[in-house]
Design goal:
mainly alpha, elongated, disordered N terminus
Length: 144
Amino acid sequence: MSQDENGASGEQYGRPTWSGLITWDTEGALMRYRVMAFIVGVGLVLLVFVGMPLRYFGHQKIVVQVVGTLHGYLYLLYLVAAADLGRRARWRLGRILGVVAAGFVPFLAFYVEHRVFQQMQAEHAATLDEEATGLGGQAAGVTD
């Protein structure tokens, strides 16, 4: 991997990779959150738009029983991933609650995940710029 002048890798910050999912930093928390948001979002869409019509119009309860139970357990993991990301990124309570509530509304999890990803990338870029400016200013100010 090549690195730019800020020392960051050429890959996109927060882009899910197998090795990144097990790192215990903010980027790893972002990746875990993104994966869980996608899984929970797909489960909720299946539950609402496939399972519920089958239950009420087709009198088939099995899809709701299976997908609903799976969605419930996976939502708990989504909560843990969102809380972990919120703690590591030092989010305020309102932002954490908004992210958590996104798991209740079909398709909203995808939108909120996208917004969180964009905001985290912008915050990461700003941090890199601050570090580069701070280091550059210190290096330029040290002359003998």
